[in-house]
């Protein structure tokens, strides 16, 4: 059933129009002599066609159409302006306001019926197209969600492999990635990029799967030669992850190869400096270092929080991107709460 709303301050004209509408199949009517009351109804009610008189007190037909078009639910509903004139100025004003068609009084019953039928057919086609678009959006959303889940599973499984080849814990990876998400927000990255960096950062050390055990698990300090081998994990990570069409894996590859670069250009593997370092690499560098400092390792105790904070502050402009450090301190309460979950109770109380 189609719903046709009519507005005319003249009751005689309104009754006439209502009778003409009722001659059209499958139509029900809503009739108003007060345009303000009609607008109130339209804020809560969906209709298929609106017929409005041009000459009305306080709110004329053109202004009525303008107000309708400001309502998102009626942005595409056909609107017919009923006038006693076909003056060009009136027609242009109504078109600019959003009118779809015009009828001139006195109304011709046959013309009226044909116009109304055509406009209702147009509305039906609009609704069918919108329904198809909504269905397509849902299907795309489902497929996208499935793709994201598969990508997340890949990340998770590769991360599990990394955990078996690293002295760091899975808890560190989880905390560090959450800190990355907070820093990404503070750096002004989009919601989607914040989500991606939080997932992709979990892969930052995937290249360590290619580091020999005698170097990776060495309890003491590494020799210069061993350090060079250890540093190849960034390029190995890039080799493992690069070339994917997935934006998530592309970002993971960027992070893997750049998270040991330093703002002043003294990092590795490429010695990049400043904004030449991908922003996701800069974010991961700070998150990784801070949580590592705050965590217990076989070769060191957790640092007191004051010492870790001082390290970050001192590293601004040398080790770390100053904007990233600024975001770190702007969101420090959230970050400290996350990093604190990796510390022993004795260390926390001592801090």
Provide key terms for this protein.
351 residues; alpha/beta; Rossmann fold; Hypothetical protein af1432; 5-stranded parallel β-sheet
Overall tally of domains? 2
Rg, alpha carbons: 33 Å
- The CATH topology of the largest domain corresponds to Hypothetical protein af1432
- Number of strand segments: 5
Separation, N- and C-terminal Cα atoms: 71 Å
Strand content: 5-15%
Structural class: alpha/beta
In terms of quaternary structure, the protein is single chain
The mean pLDDT is 87
- The assigned CATH architecture of the largest domain is Orthogonal Bundle
CATH homolog superfamily of the largest domain: Hypothetical protein af1432
Largest sheet data: 5 strands, parallel
The percent range for helix content is 55-70%
Number of helices: 16
How do the helices and strands line up, and which of them pair or pack?
Blueprint: E1 2-7, H1 11-22, E2 27-32, H2 35-44, E3 49-53, H3 61-69, E4 79-83, H4 88-97, E5 101-104, H5 109-163, H6 170-186, H7 191-200, H8 213-216, H9 224-231, H10 233-241, H11 247-258, H12 279-293, H13 305-314, H14 322-330, H15 332-339, H16 345-350
Parallel strand pairs: 1-2, 1-3, 3-4, 4-5
Helix pairs in contact: 6-7, 6-12, 6-14, 6-15, 7-11, 10-11, 11-12
Detailed description of the structure:
There is one protein chain. The protein is an alpha/beta fold. It folds into 2 domains: 2-134, 3-Layer(aba) Sandwich (Rossmann fold), CATH 3.40.50; 164-350, Hypothetical protein af1432 (Orthogonal Bundle). It is built from 16 helices and 5 strands. Helix 3 links the parallel strand 3 (49-53) and strand 4 (79-83). Helix 6 (170-186) packs antiparallel against helix 7, helix 6 (170-186) runs antiparallel to helix 15 (332-339) and helix 7 (191-200) crosses helix 11. The termini are far apart. Residues 342-351 have low confidence and may be disordered.
């Amino acid at each position: 059933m189609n719903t046709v709303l009519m507005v005319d301050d003249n009751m005689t004209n309104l009754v006439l129009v209502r009778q003409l509408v009722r001659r059209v199949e499958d139509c029900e009517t809503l009739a108003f002599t007060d345009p303000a009351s009609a607008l109130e109804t339209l804020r809560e009610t969906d209709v298929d066609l609106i017929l409005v008189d041009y000459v009305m007190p306080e709110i004329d037909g053109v202004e009525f159409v303008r107000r309708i078009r400001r309502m998102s639910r009626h942005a595409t509903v056909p609107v017919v302006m009923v006038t006693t004139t076909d003056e060009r100025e009136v027609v242009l004003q109504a078109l600019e306001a959003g009118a779809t068609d015009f009828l001139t009084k006195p109304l011709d019953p046959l013309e009226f019926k044909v116009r109304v039928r055509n406009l209702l057919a147009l509305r039906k086609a609009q609704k069918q197209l919108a329904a198809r678009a909504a269905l397509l959006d849902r299907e795309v959303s489902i497929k996208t969600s499935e793709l994201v889940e598969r990508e997340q599973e890949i990340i998770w499984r590769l991360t599990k492999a990394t955990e078996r080849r690293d002295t760091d814990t899975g808890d560190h990876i989880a905390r560090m990635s959450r800190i990355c998400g907070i820093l990404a927000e503070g750096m002004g990255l989009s919601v989607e990029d914040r989500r991606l960096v939080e997932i992709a950062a979990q892969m930052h050390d995937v290249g360590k799967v290619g580091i020999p055990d005698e170097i990776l698990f060495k309890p003491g300090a590494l020799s210069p030669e061993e350090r060079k081998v250890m540093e190849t994990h960034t390029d190995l990570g890039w080799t493992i992850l690069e070339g994917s069409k997935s934006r998530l894996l592309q970002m993971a590859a960027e992070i893997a190869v750049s998270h040991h670069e330093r703002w002043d250009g003294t990092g590795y593997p490429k010695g990049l400096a400043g904004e030449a370092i991908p922003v996701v690499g800069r974010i991961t560098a700070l998150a990784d270092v801070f949580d590592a400092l705050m965590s217990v390792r076989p070769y060191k105790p957790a640092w007191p929080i004051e010492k870790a904070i001082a390290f970050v502050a001192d590293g601004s402009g040398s080790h770390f991107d100053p904007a990233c450090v600024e975001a770190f301190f702007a969101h420090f309460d959230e970050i400290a709460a996350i990093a604190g979950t990796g510390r022993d109770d004795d260390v926390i109380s001592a801090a």
